[in-house]
Each structure stands twice: as structure tokens, then as C-alpha cells.
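Checklist before submission:
- one chain only
- standard amino acids only
- sequence pasted in full

Submission:
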Amino acid sequence: MPKIIEDVENRILCAARQRLLGGDLSSFSARGIAEDCGIAVGTIYNYYRDKESIMAAVMAQDWQAELTKAGERIDAVPSIEEGVRCLYEAMRSFSRVYESVWASYPTGEGFGSLFRTRHRQLLSQIEAQLSALYARFGPVPEKGQRILLSELILAASQHPEVGPEDLISCIRGGVGSRTL
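Returned file contents:
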């Protein structure tokens, strides 16, 4: 009779998160995660096709949690600017957690396709938050403008030297306004 393991997928993700955020990516493997969980490596492959899909699941889970928190804060903000600040802070917080992972991850074959897919998904989620925010405070910009603003928030969050005030100033038209 097969051994029944409680909450296997959650255990896999918890062990994967510890390895992923614990430092060196060379320790991130299905075999190592299986050992941490006390399960057979084949059990992991019942849930995930490879270590990249495990990484993606961990990051997606963390991003969803961050996006949910941001959404709750955005529901209570008094202005569009404060809502944009919430989105920026959510992206920045998430980015800080995974900076070392992204910096050390090899960009081999298939990475570009995976990156583009995740990037589009992320932009879509940010854009949905912006749509809801703008719907509360004024006219909703065209989709193209919302996507550009989403890209701006995402890009700003990746640079520690760019703060929320820089982002909000840019949105208001403060960047280069005297020279353009």
C-alpha cells in the first residue's frame, strides 16, 4: 500500500523556498528538495516537470501574496499617487527577496521564452490593479498607457536608486519637463 503524505505540494514549495532563498542556487535541485521533505524525487515530478517550474511556483506564490496585500492597501488609498506607491512598494519588496536568485540564474536556452511569459503575466496583473485604481479616482487611461505605466512601475522597482517619489514625479510629468 502506498504511503500517504499529507499536504505534499505545500511541503515541496516550503522546502523549495528555503533552498531558493537560502543562498547558492547550486543547492536547488529536485533531489535536494525531496530529501528535505522526506519523499521520493519522483513524487516531486508528479507536481512539477523540472526545477524551473518549482522555482516559478514558489515565486508565483510569493508574488500573489504580495499582490493581494497591495490590492488591500490600494482599496484604501486616498489618491492615484498613493496607489502607484503601493504597487511600487509591492514590486520592490518582491524584487528584493529574489534579487540574488535572478542575479545568479543562468540565462540559457529557453530562459527568454519563460521570461517573456512571466513578464507579460506580471504586467497584466499590475495593469489590472492600475485599472481598478484609476476607476476609483478619474478617467481610466487607455490600455496602452496603462501597460506603459505598468512597465514603468516594474522597471522602477528593479533599481534601488529609484524611489516611489521618482516614479510619481515621472508619472506627473516631472522628468525632463523643462528640457522636452
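Reviewer check: Residues 111-137 form the longest helix (27 residues).
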